[in-house]
Amino acid sequence: AAIHNNYIIGKQPKQKRFEDNGLWYVDKVEQEQGRLVCAVQRELPPPPSAVFQFTIKVLAFDRPEVLQRLLRSLEDVDFENDDVRLDIFIDRPVVEDGDDEQHMTNWRQSITVAKDYTWEHGEKNVVVRSEHYGLAEQW
Fold this sequence. Notes:
This protein is of the alpha/beta class. 29% of the residues lie in helices and 23% in strands. The chain has helices spanning 11-20, 64-74, 101-116, 135-138; strands at 26-32, 35-40, 54-60, 84-90, 124-128. Helix 2 (64-74) runs parallel beside helix 3 (101-116). The longest helix is centred in the last third of the chain and has 16 residues, at 101-116.
């Protein structure tokens, strides 16, 4: 977490803000030979986990050829043996009376492409939307 204190004027108000948020770990600050020396009042929290989970999110719709091309291009990426999760979200077309059935056929083909794709770099999740979300809501 980062707290921006530059807009707060004065040392005491800045220190109080850190204290109020449980981020002040110093009991006393003194200056010795031009250096600040801090006496820690409590144990510091453990450092953040070094585990990093890289995730690729693919937003798809009713263009199976484009999805296939994208997934093939991911095969050429060197992830340096890292575990990489792949999340594929497939939005559902808006279907109304008289709509072109081709959209639904292409949508079903996109689902097949996503489900049949073998991801060798980690976990793969395919999320098929049961209703139309739109691009902004897919995330």
